[in-house]
Design goal:
Blueprint (H helix, E strand, L loop, with lengths): L7 H4 L8 H12 L8 H13 L8 H20 L8 E7 L3 E8 L2 E9 L9 H15 L1 H4 L3 E6 L4 H4 L7 H10 L3 E6 L6 H6 L21 H10 L3 H4 L7 H10 L11 E3 L2 E6 L2 E6 L2 E5 L3 H13 L8 H9 L2 E2 L3 H10 L2 H6 L6 E2 L15 E6 L11 E7 L5 E6 L5 H5 L8 H8 L10 H6 L6 H6 L10 H28 L2 E2 L8 E5 L18 E11 L3 E5 L9 E3 L3 E3 L14 E4 L2 E4 L4 E7 L4 E6 L1
Parallel strand pairs: 1-4, 4-5, 9-10, 11-15
Antiparallel strand pairs: 1-2, 2-3, 6-7, 7-8, 8-9, 12-13, 13-14, 16-17, 16-20, 17-18, 18-19, 21-22, 23-24
Organism: Cystoisospora suis
Protein name: Retrotransposon ty3-gypsy subclass
Keywords: Aspartyl protease, DNA integration, DNA recombination, DNA-binding, DNA-directed DNA polymerase, Hydrolase, Magnesium, Metal-binding, Multifunctional enzyme, Nucleotidyltransferase, Protease, RNA-directed DNA polymerase, Transferase
Length: 619
């Protein structure tokens, strides 16, 4: 049984046509197949007679019957046409401002018709993108018919052939070109007058009600859009009287009076801008078209909330928010207000990742000036127990000479017991092996750095090798070695500092500042099964002290059981709304005698079978 979806575009074609252009478009569609429709002239006569009338078009029931008969006849031809995989395929497509249309043919017989209305975003596509979209849509729709067979595509846009071979394309075009790679086709250019069927399908009368662009070249052409906006913002006109930015402009526009020819207020040219007062609203002409002037801070706040905070807006960044608003609205400090509003958004600060350089410059620890001035301590554990019950080694290493003292201990030793370890209990053999070995960082052995010479090793005595003689002036020799060792130790520190600070930034806060705390590495942030949906920051928290050069102490909530000192890299400044449009609300509030977080939204919930409770992930 034939698939009825092949002719759905014809079935849904309106049977009542409103003007001469629509009648001619329909007659062009069915007239293209007049040789396949029995009694075409008789069926189409009422419509031809309607076009020949010199008076205005008057639609009668006989005209609707004629449209229905012609539709049914063409549907019957299509449904009875048998598709043959051995015959060549011809695909004809077209895209108008409001819709796309296509027809698939074999040897002049229609196999299937297709058309659809454009979405709101697609209405703004340029002509060449719309034409390519129509081709991709038709090929995807009839993939079962076409398969891998060669199909000839007839389109009325000559630039498509160049677009298919250009090296750089947008993401959208790249997606469509990738779709086209699945098909075997060749393109043929046909002028619009010869592409009658697809042209009529893309201009169906019921598709012509799609909204037009918001940025037409003249206000009078934008009448429908302005009325739609005014229905929601009917009180805006009253705001101009109290707006410092537009009060005088509106007054001047009204003073200029009305143009007798157009019946509208005379435009005002001021500072290379053209203002137009029309039906209680002020418009300004920009390079992209006419924009509505937004008065008062309250209305501007409403606009910013709609284009940034609204759930369908999606909290875009500064640049995207500006671009979205500038398509329709304008006021003098628009960019400054958007920047302050977006930077002070708590939801963005809590959830969005920071792409700034790592906070806090690297400051390596200073190289010691004297042996044993700075000591490193470590534990080597997990050793087999000795006869005295020792199963660990405590190491004490001089930061300058790298000389080590090793003390046996038990693995269960605690911090207090570690401080009481007697250094006289050394491990002579391990110490000698370590301290007489040349270190890569200093280029000398720890023993030589400390005493000015390297002691004789047992292997030298065994084979009679000569040993290094001590210098005549040991203190002077030791000082020379120490200076050389300090230079060698400073080199990697300086290199590390230089390379690290190339990707860091110096961040300074003051006591009393408010900051956001990065919690993605803390236990509180790992409760969600999806790290990408978890909040990256919490706060804001007040800085109550500075610890060292690169850490700050925060005033945390009592429920946050953690050490309140954090490195500067984990802190992000809390931005105050410089536009004063957001208000002074803070995401933290005090409830009763406890500090709690105000719930702004719910990410997810999870049921606990053991307790029967439901837990919510909120922000």
């Amino acid at each position: 049984m034939p698939d009825p979806r092949k002719v759905e575009a014809l079935k849904n074609y309106p049977e009542r046509l409103e003007n001469v252009k629509q009648v001619r478009g329909f007659l062009g569609l069915v007239g293209y197949y007049r040789q396949l429709i029995e009694g075409f002239n008789e069926k189409a006569k009422p419509l031809h007679d309607l076009l020949s009338e010199k008076t205005s078009l008057v639609w009668r029931p006989k005209h609707s019957r004629a449209v229905k008969e012609l539709k049914d006849a063409l549907i019957n031809v299509t449904m009875t046409s048998i598709f043959s995989p051995d015959l060549p395929l011809v695909l004809k497509t077209d895209a108008s401002k409001y819709a796309v249309g296509a027809v698939l043919e074999q040897e002049g017989y229609p196999i299937a018709f297709e058309s659809r209305k454009k979405s709101g975003r697609e209405v703004f596509y340029p002509a060449y993108e719309s034409e390519l979209m129509a081709i991709v849509y038709a090929l995807s729709k009839w993939k079962l018919f076409i398969g891998t067979e060669l199909v000839t595509i007839e389109r009325d846009h000559a630039t498509l052939s160049r677009m298919l071979t250009q090296k750089k394309v947008t993401t959208r075009l790249g997606y469509w070109l990738d779709k086209l790679a699945d098909f075997n086709f060749r393109g043929v250019y046909k002028p619009g007058k010869q592409n009658i069927v697809a042209d009529a399908l893309s201009r169906r009368p019921d598709y012509m009600e799609v909204i037009s662009s918001l940025t037409e070249s003249r206000p009078e052409r934008n009448r429908r859009n302005k009325e739609r906006v005014r229905s929601k913002l009917v009180e805006w006109g009253k705001g101009y009287e109290s707006c410092d930015d537009f009060r005088e402009i509106v007054k001047t526009c009204k003073t200029l009076g009305i143009d007798e020819g157009t019946g509208k207020f005379i435009p005002l040219i001021q500072e290379e801008k053209e203002f137009h007062w029309d039906d209680g609203l002020l418009w300004v002409k920009m390079r992209e078209g006419w924009k509505m002037c937004v008065p008062t801070r309250e209305i501007r706040r409403e606009v910013l909330q709609g284009f940034h905070d609204d759930a369908l807006a999606g909290h875009p960044g500064i640049e995207k928010t500006i671009l979205d608003i500038e398509r329709i609205f304008w006021w003098p400090a628009l960019k400054t207000d958007v920047e302050g509003y977006v930077r002070s958004c708590p939801a963005c600060a809590l959830a969005k990742a920071s792409f700034s350089k790592y906070g806090g410059l690297l400051h390596p620890l200073p190289t010691p000036k004297y042996p044993w001035e700075v000591i490193n301590t470590d534990l080597i554990m997990g050793l087999p127990k000795g006869k005295d019950g020792f199963d660990a080694i405590v190491t004490f290493v001089c930061q300058l000479t790298k000389m080590a003292h090793l003390v046996p201990e038990q693995q269960s030793i605690n911090a207090s017991e570690l401080g009481e370890v007697l250094w006289v209990e050394v491990l002579p053999m391990l110490e000698f092996a370590y301290n007489s070995t040349v270190r890569s960082s200093t280029k000398v052995s720890p023993f030589e750095m400390l005493y000015g010479f390297t002691p004789e090793k047992p292997v030298c005595r065994k084979y009679g090798l000569p040993m290094q003689a001590p210098a005549a002036n040991l203190p002077l020799q030791a000082e020379v070695v120490l200076r050389r060792a300090r230079r060698e130790l400073d080199k990697p520190k300086l290199n590390q500092q230089r390379f690290a600070n190339a990707h860091r930034r110096d961040v300074e806060f003051k006591v009393g500042d408010k900051v956001w705390l990065k919690v993605s590495h803390l236990p509180m942030a790992t409760s969600s099964s999806s790290r990408s949906l978890s909040l990256r920051y919490r706060g804001p928290f007040k800085i109550i002290g500075r610890v060292g050069k690169r850490a700050y102490k925060l005033k945390l909530l009592p429920s946050m059981l953690m050490h309140p000192v954090f490195h500067v890299s984990l802190l992000k400044p809390w931005m105050k709304d410089t536009s004063s449009l957001r208000g002074s609300s803070s995401p933290q509030v005090a409830i009763g005698d406890k500090n709690e977080n105000e719930v702004q939204g719910i990410f997810k919930h999870q049921d606990d079978p053991s307790t029967g409770r439901r837990w919510f992930k909120v922000f």
